[in-house]
What we know:
Elements: H1 3-11, E1 13-28, E2 33-49, E3 53-57, H2 64-71, E4 79-84, E5 87-88, H3 94-100, E6 104-107, H4 121-133, H5 137-150, H6 167-179, E7 185-189, H7 197-214, E8 217-221, H8 225-231, E9 234-239, E10 242-248, H9 249-254, H10 259-266, H11 307-311, E11 317-318, E12 324-325, H12 330-339
Amino acid sequence: MSVEAETALASGTLIRVEHLKKWFPVKEGFAHMQTQFLKAVDDVSFDIIRGETLGLVGESGCGKTTLGRVIICLEKATEGKVVFENTDIFNLPPKELRSFRQNMQIVFQDPHDSLNPRMKVEEIVGEPLEIYGKMKRAELRKRVSELLDVVGLSPSHARRFPHEFSGGQRQRIGVARALALNPKFIVCDEPVSALDVSIQSQTINLLEDLQEEFELTYLFISHDLSVVKHISDRVAVMYLGKVVELADKEDLYRNAYHPYTKALLSAVPVPNPRLEKKRIILEGSVPSPMDRGPGCCFSSRCWLAQDICRQEEPPFEDCGSGHFAACFMIEKEEAACTLNPDWPGNKE
């Protein structure tokens, strides 16, 4: 475990997610009758340690963004609870929840769509302050100038509209807005995926600097495993609405347990062709999130799957040293890798 993660662990848990579910009703037919549920998040449990960056990875449509939105109450959970500093936020009365939500903010994926094109930067960044701060106009403008300076923009930009900025600058405006109320926790929902590669590193460095300066805790959602490895302390891997593995980043990238994680890591490009790993090509069809059937959610594509995998759902258990995984075949995977050099998880 990294020094940063150990320090964060010593300071305790900030957020505890327990058996969280978010099911969307699916209505069909002329009468729009509800026929089934789309299980976007299905029985997810984990902790977020104070001061850490927890990376959340998985392919598109696996439920990463929905999970982040439910945690900060932008979506209403179907079941489960989220405990923030010993407060079950789902049970708070609406008035108390509105006040409590100052502690939780989000940086959206697309900086173009997340900023109101009819509002100036001063209004965008200052809107949370108007809602919660009850500041006078002069105080609000001073605070907005301070926030723009913190994220690397000029205070003179406050009078401009979003379309007058580049994508990277618009994302900085979104970060400034998220910082306005001095939150403790920020969901970063793929904050660099819509940016050029040259700008991505600047935004990542900005987020890291702000975390250190303001003692922030991040849930960093991304499909880019290289970015997640750089910024995260721990990494959670999500597949079809479930977290299938969670570990310290160094442990996960060096010694992944779950077959799906192994497949993801095998697809990460490396700069030296001589070090290229054997690519794991997943076969089989992806189950519908509305009807996955019994057993492990990955069993239809897993090269290790046995009868038990198709009949029972594997528990999400600690396999040692805080490395969690949901797989019946962990020990059999290790044995197969040793005995068979052509096993999909092995390097060439």
